[in-house]
Write a structure and sequence with these properties.
By secondary structure, this protein is α/β, with parallel strands linked by helices. The protein is built from 11 helices and 12 strands. It is 35% helix and 20% strand. Helix 10 links the parallel strand 10 and strand 11. It is elongated. Bound molecules: S-adenosyl-L-homocysteine (SAH).
């Protein structure tokens, strides 16, 4: 259910406009588990809403928690399941949302890819992951969102954009990560929004990137980098590159030099170095060159940060969602 459905219903039935404002506030607050609990609404309206509109489209199946990180397995109405993660160790509580059930891209280091692609999430399902967390952690609430869970956001582009229009969190606190779907990067750039965009880069060489991320055969690296310049120059916003350091794959001096060249080619490019989380069914291992990269990147005045992984114990770290549970 979308709030616009309720808005239309209230309009059609001549309810005063403040009713919608009340419902919207209640619904987004996370304070209520259903419409019947909204005691500031007339009883008959609560009952009508309860009957006509499903409150939330996802149901918690499993829940795990480790210092600062929580992970939930959510069941969708057709029985399929997705994972969503909450990270609470920062100024803002961040939710990491899934955009698809499974993923078609089959990146070698990623657990979701191993389960194949099932389907896109609907706009409601995208939004209800936020609602699920807001109810779960009330009176705390989600302050930041990253679309970095299961799936490729830019292959579920329309629903993603629609969901963004409904989220009442500032665009600058929302990040979308893509494996590099070039036409959508261009389309997204042309919208000139304030959302943050991240590109999962992982290698600056066509051949290596093709092996790690087969999507590179369809959208090659040179074209991807051109699209990244186009995005940065059109939006004048920083563009984030995600680079998981993988032992003997992308952590040589040659890799480092090429990464530095890329980052120096546009002042809006920003690098996030990630530590690889090894996943079942892949023999890729985390690199031991993290310190070296850190020293050299600092020396060369590259804009970068190192994102250490949290949630590893509960398999809630990047790319580990769902695969290690019983859903695949
Ligand atoms: N499909 C999108 C978003 C989902 S993955 C994308 O590719 O960007 C979110 C981020 O986690 C991406 O940067 C992805 O490359 C990274 N990731 C996936 N598996 C990982 C792993 N095992 N270790 C570290 N990072 C991983």
């Amino acid at each position: 259910m979308l709030l616009t459905d309720i808005k239309n219903f209230l309009l059609e039935n001549n309810y005063p406009s403040f009713r919608y404002k009340q419902i919207e506030k209640n619904y987004n607050s996370g304070r209520y588990n259903n419409f019947l609990e909204m005691s500031d609404l007339p009883k008959d309206l609560r009952e009508i809403l309860n009957e006509k509109f499903p409150y939330i489209s996802v149901v918690e199946d499993k829940f795990q928690s480790e210092l600062g990180t929580k992970k939930a397995l959510l069941k969708l109405s057709d029985g399929l399941e997705i994972e969503t993660v909450l990270m609470d160790y920062d100024q803002w509580i961040t939710a990491c949302l899934s955009t698809q059930v499974g993923c078609s891209l089959n990146c070698q280091f990623c657990a979701t890819g191993k389960m194949g692609f099932k389907r896109n999430l609907t706009t409601e399902e995208l939004l209800d992951q936020i609602r699920y967390w807001n109810i779960k952690i009330y009176p705390k609430y989600i302050g930041r969102i990253v679309f970095m869970g299961m799936g490729e956001p830019f292959l579920n582009y329309d629903n993603l954009l629609e969901s963004l229009n409904h989220i009442d969190i500032g665009a600058r606190k929302i990040s979308i990560s893509t494996a590099g779907i070039i036409p959508k990067i261009i389309e997204f750039a042309n919208l000139k929004t304030q959302y943050n965009l991240a590109i999962s880069l992982h290698s600056v060489f066509q051949k290596t990137r093709e092996e790690l991320m087969p999507i590179t055969k369809t959208y090659n690296l040179d074209e991807l980098i051109k699209a990244c310049h186009y995005y940065a120059n059109t939006t004048n916003r920083q563009l984030f590159f995600e680079y998981a350091l993988i032992k003997n794959v992308n952590d040589s001096q040659k890799d480092l030099d090429a990464v530095i060249n890329l980052l120096k080619s546009n002042k809006l490019f920003y690098l996030n170095i990630i530590t690889l989380n090894p996943v079942k069914g892949s023999n890729l291992q985390p690199s031991d060159k993290l310190k070296l990269f850190e020293t050299e990147l600092t020396k060369k005045h590259i804009n970068f940060s190192i994102r250490r992984s949290f949630g590893q114990k509960i398999d809630a770290a990047c790319g580990q969602l769902a695969y290690n549970t019983d859903i695949c």
